[in-house]
Each structure stands twice: as structure tokens, then as C-alpha cells.
TrEMBL record:
Domain MRH residue range list: 107-269
Bilayer topology annotation: Peripheral membrane protein
Domain of life: Eukaryota
Record's protein name: Endoplasmic reticulum lectin
Function recorded in the entry: Lectin involved in the quality control of the secretory pathway. As a member of the endoplasmic reticulum-associated degradation lumenal (ERAD-L) surveillance system, targets misfolded endoplasmic reticulum lumenal glycoproteins for degradation.
Signal peptide limits: 1-19
GO-annotated molecular function: carbohydrate binding
Gene Ontology biological process: endoplasmic reticulum unfolded protein response; retrograde protein transport, ER to cytosol
Protein localization: Endoplasmic reticulum membrane
Length: 478
């Protein structure tokens, strides 16, 4: 049985000793779905081990205090020294700019399909422009890029000194005879955490990885602000992403964009690599105490805590209001009206296909519970063929969008921006019908005592198929 692992920044702290620093590091609480009987939890607190100890703690889950049994590793010395700065800031900036130029100076565009709000192909054309347009998946895979709406190829920003042209084309239109000259004064080097929601608040205690930002203006005039579009390009080293290219793009304000671009060459600079502070944070693993379950075990040992790896009997689908997820485990993409879709960055390796690859919804709105179904339902209807993925994939990375001709039973969990479970939605459609109607059900959070009356057929989640969120799916052929 696979575990749903939750990561949160803890309020606990441990003092770390090192010759380089006397900082206090934040630890990280790791929640998982396992439940430990109350008598076992109390016995664990009596265990003595050189590896660690156990404590019962009252922790907040969706504004409710719940008892957890937590494993506290023994104090250990960690090296929290920051990366050695081999360059002065100005020299580091120029070195990073040179690496960026060497990576992308090939007169071509780097394009990513279906990333901006799950609809746009976004193009990064070094020395020329950042653009977005909508195209057919077949055209994208062929490499012969063609906008479905030729008059809707939008320039989000232009590089300084880019030559003017009458018509925007889906290619790099810079003058090949002239070398791209980038002014270091247009770049900013900064460090700290980077958020998918556009919150770049710096936390120097947990991350000193550096990024370099370049702001481009002179984009297409925005219909809403009547001002040119602008885009912040944030270049970073991401060793997991690997290849150079666009990682994500968000519209953080009306017609103001933030694009993250991976530059593997930046990883050669220690300042741009993830530092050792993250690697040395100590995880505190916590499991919920099941106060209704008592097991008279003959022996409880230190290892007993780790042997409890299965959740409650029955379906693992989120339904209790204090269920949580860690949004950092998901790629988060906006779908409109304050809602987002989250897809797992890394598959879980378990025997349940639903949990290995599921997609979740995220509600960033402060709206009444009664209005949630109406708002999310309307969004689903309006964006079905553009932003909601189907289980039919072209390759490992690209899923085709749902179509009105599809027949499906589609389940999706919704969480708030803090990872608290909000509701479970079920959408049903018969694609053979000549209409644009979808049957919607919203199953709200319930108390633990009410799970027996949970109003949903959960057989699918106990025995899911390979189509992750889809209990049933069929693409009807014309």
C-alpha cells in the first residue's frame, strides 16, 4: 500500500553546531497517511533508542487540533555553511549572462506545449521575443508550428534592441548578423525560495540558491490595461529538470508574466546550485493516532512506528476534513477563476495507479462553500476542451485535452492553498449525447465519525485502473 507523504515547514527547531555557522535551522514535519493505535502510540513514547525518540503532539490540521505520534531523530551536527562565493556580484552576474547566451544563442526558439494555463504554446526566442499562441498537438509534435488562430500570436516581451517587424512569426526573427548584446544592468541576481504563486519571499535560513532575473517589456498592448505586456524571465539551475528550456510560466498580474527557464550551465556555478542547507534539514515524521483503535500487542519496539505504513481500512481517497497534501510535490498550473490543477512531479511507486499519477484541483478563492460547486462547475464546462487533461497521452509528458465527445466518470480532489482537503468532485458525461452537459457531484468534507455514510461509490479507489482520475473513460470515434 502506497503512502501519501505530506511535507510542511515545522515550528520545531534544532540547534546545529558547525565551525562555519551557529544558525538555528527549521526542521520539517513529514505527515503520512498511516494510523497508529492509541495504545501503540503511548508505548512508543517509552522506547529508548540511540536513533531517536517518540513524542505525542497536538498538531493543527485544517483548523482542528489532532493527536500525532512523532519520531524525533537524535540531535546531529550538520554543516550549514553557505556556498563559497568565488565571484564578486558583478562578476557572477556577467558569468551567468555569458552562460545563458551560450546556451540559447542558436537563432532558434525553445517551445513548450500546453503550459500557460493549460492552453498556450509558449516560445522563448533568445535575442528576439517571448510569445504565446495556441496550436494543435499534431503540429507541435511535428515541429512545424502553426497557430490555430494566426491573429492571436501574442508577444509577451521583447529583448532589448530586437529589430522591429510588421508581423510576428513563429520563429526567431532577430538579425542573425548581429550578436545579442545583453546589458548586465538589466539583470538582477537574487536568492531565496521561489513560489509557483508568484510569492518570491526570501527565506535565507533554508535556501541560498541564487537566481538571475531579466525583465522584458515592449510586448503586445494588453486589452485590459492598455499597457504593453511584460515578462520576468527567471533563469535557474534545476538539476532534476535536466535540459535547457521553459519550466513554467504564470500570469502573476494582468498581462504581467513570470517565466522560469532552466539553464543547466548555471549548475557549474556553486552559487546557483541548491545548497547544503536543504539537504541537512532533519525530518520529523508524524503519524496520526487512531484513538478508536486499540491493539494489545505483546511487544512494541522502536521499529514498530515504521511498520505502520497502511492507512485506515478501505479507500485512501481523501474525504476527512483534516486530510492534507504537500503542494510542493505538484506542478501547479492555473486554469482560471482562481483555480489550479496540480500534477505530481514524481510518480509514487505503489500498486495503486490512482495514487501514482493522480491530478488534484486547488482552490485559491475565498468563496462560500455553497458557491464552490457552481464556480468550479462553470469553469469545467467553459474550459473542458482546453485545460482539463484526458488519460490519452501522446508520450510520457503530453496528455490530450478532454473533448465533448468523450464519455467519462472523472473524480478530482480539491485542496486549498495550504494543502487542506476541501471537497471531492465527481463529473459524469455521456459523450454520445449531442449536448454540452456534465453531471456534477460535490462530496464535502466529513467528520471521521461520518465516513461510513460517505456518499460515494469508492470501489474505484480501492481497485483503480491505469487511467488515474478516471473511473471510466472512452473516446467516442465519429
Amino acid at each position: 500500500m502506497n503512502l501519501l507523504v505530506i511535507l510542511l515547514v515545522s515550528l520545531f527547531k534544532v540547534s546545529s553546531s558547525s565551525s562555519q555557522s551557529t544558525q538555528t535551522l527549521k526542521n520539517r514535519i513529514v505527515y503520512d497517511n498511516a494510523r497508529i493505535p492509541v495504545d501503540v502510540a503511548h508505548s512508543l513514547t517509552q522506547q529508548k533508542s540511540e536513533l531517536g525518540s517518540f513524542e505525542i503532539m497536538s498538531l493543527n490540521a485544517n483548523n482542528e487540533i489532532e493527536p500525532y505520534i512523532c519520531h524525533l531523530p537524535v540531535d546531529k551536527k550538520v554543516n550549514i555553511s553557505k556556498p563559497v562565493h568565488h565571484f564578486a556580484t558583478s562578476e557572477l552576474k556577467q558569468t551567468a549572462i555569458n552562460i545563458i547566451s551560450e546556451t540559447f544563442d542558436d537563432d532558434k526558439c525553445t517551445l513548450e506545449f500546453n503550459i500557460q494555463a493549460g492552453y498556450w504554446t509558449v516560445g522563448y526566442c533568445f535575442g528576439d521575443k517571448i510569445m504565446q499562441f495556441h496550436e494543435d498537438l499534431v503540429d507541435f509534435l511535428s515541429g512545424n508550428h502553426r497557430a490555430q488562430l494566426p491573429n492571436h500570436v501574442y508577444v509577451l516581451g521583447k529583448f532589448p534592441n530586437a529589430k522591429p517587424y510588421k508581423q510576428t512569426e513563429i520563429r526567431n526573427q532577430r538579425d542573425e548578423q548581429n550578436k545579442v548584446n545583453l546589458d548586465p544592468r538589466d539583470f538582477i541576481v537574487f536568492e531565496g525560495e521561489f513560489s509557483s504563486f508568484g510569492d518570491d519571499e526570501v527565506d535565507y535560513s533554508t535556501n541560498t540558491q541564487k537566481f538571475i532575473k531579466h525583465t522584458l517589456g515592449n510586448g503586445e498592448i494588453c486589452d485590459l490595461t492598455l499597457q504593453p505586456r511584460t515578462v520576468d524571465i527567471v533563469y535557474k539551475c534545476d538539476q532534476d529538470f535536466g535540459r535547457p528550456g521553459i519550466m513554467e510560466i504564470q500570469e502573476i498580474k494582468t498581462c504581467q508574466y513570470q517565466m522560469i527557464v532552466n539553464v543547466p550551465g548555471l549548475c557549474s556555478l556553486e552559487e546557483f546550485r541548491k545548497n547544503l542547507i536543504h539537504e541537512n534539514i532533519v525530518d520529523i515524521t508524524c503519524k496520526k493516532i487512531d484513538q478508536d483503535d486499540n491493539l494489545s500487542l505483546q511487544e512494541v519496539t522502536y521499529d514498530t512506528f515504521f511498520e505502520y505504513q497502511s492507512p485506515n481500512q478501505g479507500s485512501q481517497v481523501a474525504k476527512v476534513k483534516n486530510e492534507k497534501v504537500d503542494l510542493d510535490q505538484f506542478y501547479i498550473n492555473p486554469i482560471g477563476d482562481g483555480f489550479y490543477l496540480g500534477s505530481l512531479k514524481h510518480e509514487y511507486k505503489g500498486d495503486k495507479p490512482y495514487w501514482n499519477t493522480r491530478v488534484i484541483a486547488i482552490n485559491a478563492n475565498d468563496i462560500d462553500e455553497g458557491d464552490l460547486l457552481n464556480r468550479f462547475g462553470k469553469l469545467f464546462l467553459h474550459t473542458l476542451e482546453r485545460k482539463f487533461p484526458s488519460p490519452i497521452t501522446i508520450n510520457d509528458n503530453i496528455a490530450t485535452a478532454l473533448q465533448w465527445g468523450d464519455s467519462f466518470i472523472y473524480w478530482i480532489e480539491m485542496y486549498d492553498m495550504f494543502g487542506n482537503f476541501v471537497a471531492l468532485f465527481k463529473m459524469v458525461r455521456d459523450g454520445k449525447l449531442d449536448n454540452h452537459e456534465v453531471e456534477f457531484h460535490k462530496i464535502s468534507v466529513v467528520d471521521k465519525q461520518s465516513t461510513e455514510n460517505f456518499a460515494a461509490n469508492l470501489d474505484y479507489f480501492d481497485h483503480p485502473n491505469k487511467d488515474w482520475n478516471f473511473e471510466y473513460f472512452k473516446r467516442n470515434q465519429e
